[in-house]
Amino acid sequence: MLAIVCPGQGSQTPGFLEPWLELPGIAEALRQWSEATKVDLVAHGTTSDEETIKDTAVAQPLIVAAGLLATQALGTDKLDPQGWMTAGHSVGEITAAGLASVLSPVDALEFVRVRAQGMASAAAMEPTGMAAVLGGDQDEVTTYLENLDITPANVNGGGQVVAAGSKNALAKLAENPPEKTRVIELKVAGAFHTEYMAPAVADLQAFAQTLSPNNPTVALASNSDGAVINSGEDFVDGLINQVTSPVRWDLCQQTMMDAGVTGIIELLPGGTLTGIARRAMKGVKTLAIKTPGDLDKAQEFIAEHTQNISA
Predict the structure, then answer these.
(1) Three-state SS for 80?
(2) Which CATH number do you get for residue 152?
(3) Do 97 and 203 have their domain in common?
(4) Are residues 178 and 201 in the same domain?
(5) Within the chain, what is the greatest distance between any pair of CA atoms?
(6) Number of structural domains the chain divides into
């Protein structure tokens, strides 16, 4: 069984799309998608600096577009739907919605535009941020954070909890981390998946009224509790709720394990989720897609982890 997973904000790096523009049709697709996102995806994926692509209004559309172009390059629409499943981390859930045909690529990109702009505006209201807490006991870490008035916004498994809150609270966390942990500030511009993001919800709810989501064509796990969602409308509702709710990636990984997943491919810009999986999903093979040179390896990987299903 194969899982194709979609990374979230913070996975982008300057120039990461440059080698992809050499593939047929990619530059044209990015230019068309730039209209849907109102973001110059070509420029931001090739020449923009780190500070520019850290901006939430840029980063989120860029990451979703990157994941969608990788799915096109992989030809995921030709796979046996019984042989694989998908999930996305945070904004990567929108990529996963496109991958599972809940939303068309254009609808997914328009959705992420509204989400990104709303979250960027919410983040500008107060000085907030996020930090990864590595190591320690998960329950003890989450309790420690809550006592500091910090939200455990991403519970990722594999000894990683991402804290979100005010800059002052995060500074106290960095000065006095939980026992047997280390704290790393993340390159994001707000306290995502917390009540700080509440101002972004209304516009997303209004935009969702214009959509006609399809039911997923493959098994699609939700960030809220790891459950497989069969209704497209329910999944879109979950995308909206996710803006102010924690990401339970640990539960998504448990769902994959329970489904018998033997291999995980992480879409562009890959690396973060496969790193977590190597720690949390022992025995499951991983492959991160970073450059077009990874596509041939990915096809072999797909064949290896889906052949027993379709035989």
Answers:
(1) coil
(2) 3.30.70.250
(3) yes
(4) no
(5) 56
(6) 2
Instruction: Say yes or no: 248 and 269 in one domain.
Output: yes
Catalytic status, residue 89: no
For 199, residues 6+ apart whose C-beta sits below 8 A from its C-beta are 118, 121, 122, 125
Would you state the pLDDT for residue 187? Answer: 76
Range of the domain at 158: 128-185
Q: Choosing from 193, 222, 224, 305, which is the catalytic residue?
A: 193
Based on the domain organization, do 165 and 19 belong to the same domain?
A: no
Instruction: Specify the DSSP element, H or E, that contains 129.
Output: strand 128-135
Which structure tokens are listed for 81?
């739907």
Q: How many angstroms separate the CA atoms of 305 and 210, rounded? A: 37
Selection from 243, 311, 205, 268 nearest residue 19 by Cα: 268
Q: Which of 11, 90, 222, 245 is catalytic?
A: 90
Reported pTM: 0.94
Q: Are 233 and 269 in contact (CB under 8 A)?
A: no
d(CA 22, CA 207): 34
User: Is 305 part of the annotated catalytic residue set?
Assistant: no
pLDDT along the chain (311 residues), means of 10: 95 95 92 95 96 92 97 92 96 98 97 97 95 95 96 95 97 95 89 97 97 98 97 98 97 97 97 95 97 96 77 36
